[in-house]
Amino acid sequence: MDFPPATATEASQERVADRITPESCVVFLTGAGVSAESGVPTFRGEDGIWNNFRPEELANFDSFLRNPARVQSWYRHRSEIVTSVQPNAGHIAIADLQWKVNACVVITQNVDNLHQRAGSETVIELHGSILRNYCIECGEPYHGDFNQKDSSVITCPCGGTVRPDVVWFGETLPENTFRAAEEQTGQSDIFLVVGTSGVVYPAAGLVHLAKESGAFLVEVNIQPTELTPLMDVSLFGKSGEILPGIVERLEA
Length: 252
Ligand code: OAD
Prior knowledge:
Blueprint: H1 10-19, E1 25-30, H2 33-36, H3 49-52, H4 55-58, H5 61-66, H6 68-84, H7 89-97, E2 103-108, H8 114-118, E3 123-125, E4 128-135, E5 162-166, H9 175-187, E6 190-194, H10 205-212, E7 216-221, E8 233-236, H11 239-247
Parallel strand pairs: 1-2, 1-6, 2-3, 6-7, 7-8
Antiparallel strand pairs: 4-5
């Protein structure tokens, strides 16, 4: 693959900041990398979750039915991580940007609620939220204690088994959620792809849609990805360092 030069220089941050005006519609597509500096492990890469756990045993409906207590306990562990960490400078820069432009939407593959905790008001959660659970029988949200410490299966008052409200492998994204993401993407002037490997579809397909719709494409990642050749500007480095550098350059 032919990559543009690896640049997270002041000049390239300036170039991105120059494209963003008070009239801009800015859309972010974020992935696990934006939360890495908060201490939430990513899925792929050197210390990625999927190096130690098999997604087919933990993130799919059949494995859940085979061993619900195990899957519940793994999600309990992950929800304890995400609730114990704090949004980082990258999340905060994204939230700050919303006050400087006409519209700012965050489309995220993350289930960790950190964009919302940083103050972003319009967040489309493509893969759901680890903080919500529902019953697979009656479909009702489950508000009971998901963090019970014993190893019994957590069930709804109706007797059905409770699952996290996240999208698993082999499941389709909620239709309305994805449609909203497509609409926002199609209206974006600037589309920033932050901290995602871009290998999971249909989320990664939004980047192609943004390109076709004529948005200015910016990637922020510590390394090149499969999406890099589509970008107008690639900024290689940590999102918690690069994003504040862009937002600080904008007029208040
Ligand atoms: P990945 O783990 O695939 O990719 C994380 C990306 O973040 C990589 O490209 C890293 O280079 C980059 N990265 C790491 N630290 C960074 C930092 N500090 N700043 C900027 N970039 C950084 O995670 P996702 O692309 O989010 O789906 O994965 C997509 C989906 O695959 C997830 O939502 C999840 C997973 O399986 C489901 O569970 C359905």
